[in-house]
Request: fold
Amino acid sequence: MDLKQLQTFLTAAETLSFTQTAQLLDYAQSSITAQIKSLEEELGVILFERLGKRVILTDEGKRLQQYAQKMLELDSEMKKAVSNEQAQVVLKIGAQESQCVYRLPSILQQYQKAYPQVKIIFKPVHTTEIAKDLLQSGILDVAFISDVYKETPMLYRERLIQEQLIFVSAPTSIKGPFLSVHQLSTETMLLTENGCSYRNQLEAQLQQEGVMSLQMIEFASIEAIKQCVMAGLGITILPKMVVEREIAKGQLIELQSSFNVKPIYTDIAWHKDKHIQPYLSDFIEIARDWYRAL
Reply:
């Protein structure tokens, strides 16, 4: 079975005439008959019934018609993609929500002035492991990894910045700006989804200290966490960049604590064997420069 046979079959299924199909495709009618017969023998079914001068598509032919159309469309899509004919360049970036909301907009604004034709797709990357899998599989071109440092031999990584994790609460929720280890076991903790790098660090440290929080409430959004903390529903731990504005406005306060959580770092990473196209190289350089200026 080849694509030429499928195109012949689809034309015949539409015209229901081998003579007309031969005229449209500029083949001899005997060639049309031979191609259809070859398909029928390969599939082990009858695709057309010949009733006198009439040609009728069988149920098996109708099923093949659907798949043949998809195969020809996919063939056309493939040829456009590999030849870059009218194909849009896509840059696939992975990052945590905190980076997407508070850092990347400025980088993207600068980048799109230089590359307005590039389509940008974001995918969530909460941990080193997720970033590694998505970069190695080619699903992502580049990722911003915010996590404690872990070995990733297949990735090329550059350190951009150390993130400061801080505890915050509403101004009236905690007596005094100091958070003791004991208080951590009695306060309601508002946390990001399970698997997020800084939640992982908090839980690992809690376990090491033998501290179990009385109640944890999980949110999918950092903004939802901040709103609930400001409403006095509990305390949280977040990168400082996420809450700087609310602290400046007096809506949240930073809590000092003897409870130490390992620092996390934001790195930019890509697969070490990846071919770096100019549009990707320039994005990496813009990101480097922006983080250096922080």
Q: What stands out?
A: The domain at 3-83 is CATH 1.10.10.10 (Arc Repressor Mutant, subunit A).
